[in-house]
Amino acid sequence: MVSVGAVRPEVLIAGPAGLVTGTMAMTMAMTMAMAMAMAAGEQVPVSLQTDTGQADIAREGRDLAQTA
Length: 68
Known about the structure:
By secondary structure, the protein is mostly helical. It is 87% helix and 0% strand. The longest helix is centred in the middle third of the chain and has 59 residues, at 9-67. The radius of gyration is 30 Å and the shape is rod-shaped. 0% of the residues are buried.
């Protein structure tokens, strides 16, 4: 069947389905990107807190060695 200026029925069916599939894929990709960004953002404070704690322990050890 040749369509001249008419919208074919399969386009009407596939169009919205493709839009929904694309939107779902985009939503999942955005969710994964946000989760990875949150994980990376949390890594910095945790490692900084660990470094600060280790420096405090080393400083206290030196102070105790000097006073003993």
